[in-house]
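Can anyone check this?
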Amino acid sequence: MSAPTFDPTGSTDRNRLRGQRATVMGLGTRAGGVGVARYLANAGAIVTVSDAKPADALAGPMADLAGLPITFNVGGHDERDFTAADLVVRNPGVRRDNPLLDLARRHGARIEMELSLFLRACQAPVIGITGTKGKTTVATLTGELLRRWDPRTIVAGNMGISALALLDSITPDTPVVLEISSWQLESAIEHGLSPHIGVITTIAEDHLNTYRDFDDYADTKRGLVIHQTANDFAVLNRDDPEIWRAAALSSGSVAPFGAARGGGQDGAWFEGDALVWRWRGEEWSIPRPDNPALAGAHQTGNILAALAAASLRGATREAIIEGLAGFAGIKDRMEPVATAGGVRFINDTTATAPIAAAAAIRAIPGVRIHLLAGGADKGLDPSPLADAMEPRVSVYLFDGTGTPHLAAALADRGVVPVGVYGSMSAILEAARANAEPGDVILLSPGCASFGIFRDEFDRGEQFREMARAFAAMETGQ
C-alpha cells in the first residue's frame, strides 16, 4: 500500500494549537462538537464554545466536557469570541457564509472543521466516503470488510461518531474509514486536503437550501478527491456521469465501480451474479452475498464501492466474503424495527431527499406500503418521490415547510395523501388504522426533520419506540 500523503506523526498540527485562542462555533447535540472541544482543550488551546442554543438544550454535551478548561458562551453568539480568536472551528450545521466566520477571517483567524483537523493529525491513511445516497451504508460496510481483515478498524464521521475523539487510538497501520457529508468537505477543500482513498457513491439533488444550486453542491461532493496526489486512489461510480467528472480532477489512481465494462478494465464490477475485482494484474470474483441486509438492486453499487475501497486498503478476498455475509444492516436505514398485527414497520428516517424515499419504495416490492413522508424543506424537487408512486402506496404527510410542495407534486399525479399530521403518534395511528396484515408502514420522508423533531435521528427513534410498543402490546410484554 502506498504511503500516506500527509505528516504520519500527526504531531505538527496538535503542537501548534497550544496557547491558541480557539472558538468552537456550534457545539451541537451530536458527538462531533464534543470531540472537537475536547481535542482542542487537550492540545492546550484556550477554548471557548459559542452556540446559539440555550444551556438547557446543550446540557448533555456540556456535561460530557465537564472538568475541562472550556468557557461556554451559549444562548447566542458574542462577536468578541470571533474577533479575538486565532482559530474558529465551525460545526457542519453552521453555514459557510455565516457573517461571524467572515468577521473572524477579517481579524486573522483561520477557519477549520473537525474533518480538516483530523486529516492533518491522523497518523494513518484515511478512507473518506461521501455521496448523496449510500455513504453511510458504504462506510459501515467498508468498515465491516476491513474489520474482518484487521479488528483495529475505526469507522467514524457523519454517522455521529467523532473522528477526533478516536485519534489517540489510531496508529499508522490502523484502517480508518470516515463517512463525510458535503458540509464537512467544505473545510477540507478550503485547506487542500483529501483522503488517501476517496469514494463517491452517488450525486443527486440535495441540500439546495444551503448551496447556490445543484452544480455548487455537486462540485463540493467531487471536491473529495481534488487534492489527491499520485499516491492516492479515487473510487468512483462509473455509471453516474456527475461522479465520473471527478475522474479528471484527482491526481490519484482512479478505481471505477459499476456495471460490467468490456476489455477487462480495472475496478469493481457486477457481472452476471458475481462481484468481480480487477486491479493491476490481480483478478478475482465472488458470488453476490445472499444477505437480506444487502438485498435489492440499489445495494449493488454500495457493495462494489465498499469492496473496492477495502481491497485497495489491503483487505483479503476471504475477509471480504466474511464481511459481506456478516453485515447486519444499519440503524435508521431501511431498518426493520417491529411487526404488529401482521404489519411490518420499517425505519428509513435518513431518507431526507425525494430520490432516497423513492428508492425505499422500490426496495419493497409486491406489498402495500403506507408511506410516512413530508417535513422540512431542503429546496429539492419532490418529483422523484411523486413519480415513484404506485397504486399500492398510500401517503401520510408530516406537517412541515416542504410538505405543501410534495403534496402538490402528488396531486399532479392523481395521488391524494392522507392528512397532515403534527406528531409521530398521530401519523402512526392513522397509518395503523388503514394497514392490514402483510402491509408495510414505511418511514421514508424525503424531507428534513426540523420542526416537529429535533433531527432525523429523533424522528427515527420516535418511530422505533412506538412501533415496538405496538408489538409489545400485542404480545402482552
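Reply from J.R.: I decoded it. The chain has three domains: 18-112, 116-326, 335-475.
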